[in-house]
Amino acid sequence: METSLAKPKVLGASITSTNEGIDKISYLPDEILHNILSFLYIFYVVQLSILSKRWNYICRTMPYLHFDIIRFGNERVKRLWDWQLAEKFKDFINWVLISQCATNTSLACFKLCSSNFFDKMAIFRWIRVITKRNVRELVLSICLDEPFELPYCVVTCESLQVLKLQLSGDMLKLPNHLGFCQLKLLHLEKVELSNEHLTSSLFSTCPHLEKLILGDCTFGAMTVLDIASTSLVYVYLVNYINNGQSYINCSVKISCPNLKVLKYGAPMAKDIIIENPFSIEIVHIFFYDPDDHIKEIGMLVHKMIKNVHSTSALKLCMGSVSGLYSVSHEVRNFPVTFYKLKSLKLTVGIDEFCMQVMILLLKHSPNLEVLNLFSDENFGWDENWRLHDPSESIVCLESHLKLIKLAGFKYEENEMELLRFFLKNARVLEKLIVVWADYADILEEASEVVLKYPRTSSHVVVTFLDVNPKSKSHYLHSVF
Fold it and tell me: What is the pTM of this model?
């Protein structure tokens, strides 16, 4: 194996002066240079190889290879037909891989974004090459317009720790024998999974799999998406392209006794079953469904959270909150008591329905420290309706709640009433953040004012994001 050129023993006084014309970057260790170059497209990395023998060596031992045909076409071979571009890109990949063969360098990451320009045989050849080089992370974003059969060399690659597949809706065919011995993260994007048994085996036979992400995936004729693993600690199911049929005909079953994070952002599944939920600490639920399913959503949300007693952070969408209200009088033990819950985030309407659910959750979260509300649609409430009965105790407001963030506010009377409620009842509140709807994405421009409670000697820092002082004073006057 070729070694790099000798470096100075001390990168000190002899090369500290830029007036001496010393190239300090070239004297950096190989690992640091490789890490810096990993942020560049591989074409630019190859261009550096002509600078010197040192840079030629650095490029030929580059462990991060990112090939993107779109970037390649924009930067290198403009005004070519698609087939010419594909051939140029294929030659470029072959040249890079061949030029690195003599160095026998292990690959930290190999990424290929090729759209539908290549047949699968070319892709399979490259995959065989990089698996022999002990690749640790493999990312494929391809479109074959036909089923993609996962190469067996990927399954048996003993060095592979991260696998990300984006197939543009193509079916993923799995081998009958699965054996990812070191895989820690599996991310499938726009993949069709069709075999229940092999899909279940894919998750359960990876002894070190810790993180699973299924994004915009479809499930064909599958009736159960079975996720069972003793090693998984993070599961995220997300579907933004609203493939409702993929979920409405398929149940989701999760049996992961060591799971800590569960995120669900997709259309409502036929059923969601969570077994052994006692280790889950973070739960995010976001359903993409119309209002006519609100009651079914409420039953499903209640079913998902009622046994998750170890949850420290809970996030619910507006559909989930509205759904919980619709079933609040029909289910027993609603809501359950979350003794370990420290952070609660809700997307709500500042109306009677959502506010009742919020109050119920506050009452049953005695140790809550952080409350984050995002105001979506406001319908207000009847002037005779009371947000809270003063005779009823809310423990977290009296002894634990220290931070409240209210985002998406529109300067409406019911929102000001909510502010008055928190300022009056949150006895240990330290900071209140108000984000106007027009500035929901602006976090760096903020003004702060320290308020002295009219009822106590305590103080609270109130932060108004991107509000000018005159408007702020008028708003504070309205609140108080």
Answer: 0.84
